[in-house]
Amino acid sequence: MTVSKFIMTPELAETREKLCGIPGHLAFKQSLVEQFEGSWTLSTCPACRWQALYNTPKDQDAHLQAVLEVAAERLNEDLIATGITPRFRKCSLSSYVTGDDKAKQRALSICRKYADKFDEHRDAGRALMLMGEIGTGKTHLACAILQCIVRHDGSTGLIVTAESITQAVTDSFRSNSGPSKTDLINELASVDLLVIDEVGMHTAKPGKDFTPGLLHEVIDRRYQLIKPTILVSNQKPEDLHSFIGPRAADRLRENGGLLAPFTWKSARSGGSV
Fold first, then answer.
1. Which of 10, 46, 109, 204 could bridge 209 with an S-S bond, Cβ 3.0-4.6 Å?
2. pLDDT digits (tens, 9 = 90+) for 72-114
3. What DSSP element (H or E) covers 222?
């Protein structure tokens, strides 16, 4: 893919020319590299890395350390690529507080089982809908699922809001140099798991609201490719068709699509997640 509007890469800071001090190794651009958990790590000499990976016996510490570093860098890149914002990067399934609330326990159980058996849901293209009141932890659990499938399954994932999809396509109509609508939909279809957050939160404009049709295109594209989608909304399940179109709503329910209802009071007004 030549264009990326939604999929993020680690930020780089304080890039400078650096010599590692080993004879024969050229100067390299050393940067501070953003880490998913919030810290920054200095990049290392690529010649030293190559030497450790390919010219050092596999039973030596230098080789093993280089392998671990490469794996950690790839995981960091995959986690940042999800688009999970710093506010939600510490969210996990285990940090979601349910207490004795049976409804919360049920929602968490549905999300945990979806993450634990993601290989089955991925192969079936099975969707999951997190629907209910605002402030009940839907985005927390959606981000927790994304982290789980990236960390443990090696899958790729992405979270975007419905509004950001609409805005990106609107911007594409105004620019001849940026990604096209087709590019954007293809990017949203490229990941193993897509989370569309805040569905139904946008302000519709009479006669000009193309968000439902656009979300239908994204969901249908993933449906055709047998790729699962998680939809997060504070709307009622029976009203979902008004915000993504009736056919897309059917797509999400097809093939055993799952629903996790969030029926309790918002944590922002006294509840707890």
1. 204
2. 999 999 999 999 999 999 999 999 999 999 999 999 999 999 9
3. helix 211-224
Amino acid at 188: L
**In this structure, is residue 1 part of a structural domain?**
no
Residue 31, CB half-sphere, CA atoms under 13 Å: how many?
10
Q: Report the C-alpha gap between 1 and 148 in whole angstroms.
A: 25
pLDDT over 70 at 207, yes or no: no
> Mean pLDDT in the chain?
91
Domain finish residue from 58, 81, 104: 81
108 and 175 part of one domain: yes
Longest dimension (CA), the chain: 69
Q: Are residues 76 and 97 part of one domain? A: no
Closest C-alpha among 153, 114, 88, 95 to residue 260: 114
Q: 51 is in which domain, residue-wise?
A: 12-81
> Which of residues 26, 48, 81 is at a domain's end?
81
pLDDT of residue 204: 58
